[in-house]
Amino acid sequence: MVGASTSTSTRNDLRLANAQTVAASCSRAKSRIAHSVLYTHFWPYANAVFQTQNASTAAVPASCPLHAYANVFRRHENAKHKLNIHNWKCDICGKAFSSEAYLDAHLERRHMHQLLHEHSEDDDVPTPTCLADHCDVLHCQVHEHTLASQGKLQGPTSYAPPTRPRSAHGPPTAHVGTISCREVGRRYQQCEAIANACFGSHHNHHHHHADDDDDDGKADAVHNFFMAQFCAPHACTDASRKPPPKPFSLPVPRPLTAAARVRRFLFGSLSVIVVVGLAYYYYVMLGHVAATSVGRGDLKRVRDARRPKSRLNELMWLAKTKLFFPKRHKVY
Ligand SMILES: [Zn+2]
């Protein structure tokens, strides 16, 4: 077993070295925007199709660069604990910081040995990836503009304003400044490659089961969604043709916020109370009707005499005779 553990630790050393190399030239801020793009405009849809809460780990192969564990900063980002805007805590060592930027710098300085996840034992671990490298493909800049306009972005932005002059003929492609058609084509190809790596068809299986077909159908649907949401907008504009779709044009199911979760819980509880209350009410009323329709003779006359006239009093009377003192009721 010494040999096995040595090879595991060697493999982890290599993996860590690889992750450190990727992280060294990767922007944390841009990676965060890319992460936000995916979790705002894509994963909620994939989760719904695959019927899971975490399609980003459960429904994609390790070779997918969007796999949650591929993000080289995932562990660091998860270790950031925001108490409020001026109070950030490092969950790895417990130190507190007055801004996210200081905490980022601290992680960079102190915790570059803690880039890997604990589960790094098995072989099917995604290759460490710089999410920021996919920012052009994922239209990070458009998303960042939206976040900034909603006031949801603090601190330095990851993008400098476009410095290149705008094209003289025709409007510039939305938000990306002026880039060549060749660059647009390159982004489209990179986008398609990601879609294929993550949600490519599995039609090469030798044995076809009904389940495989079902999974293929889901993967195809998500593949098509990804292409429409992110890739189709990477098309060269030209005055004679109709413009390509805008990024993020497809709606996704909205992930529930904490407040929405509480509202849903309260509404759910209220519904249950109302339903149970109604059921109870009808149970009591039916019992009453049954009891009064059994004896048409003396019994009824006696009961009617004792019976209050107003509705509210009737309910009180029902509750008294049927619910709280059922034994006494049996006497007559
Ligand atoms: Zn720390």
UniProtKB/TrEMBL annotation:
Residues 88-111 form the C2H2-type domain. GO terms for molecular function: zinc ion binding. SMART domains: ZnF_C2H2. The keyword Transmembrane applies. The chain crosses the membrane at residues 265-283. InterPro entries: Znf_C2H2_type (IPR013087). Residues 149-174 are annotated as: Disordered. PROSITE patterns: ZINC_FINGER_C2H2_1, ZINC_FINGER_C2H2_2. Keywords: Membrane, Metal-binding, Transmembrane, Transmembrane helix, Zinc, Zinc-finger. The keyword Membrane applies. This is C2H2-type domain-containing protein.
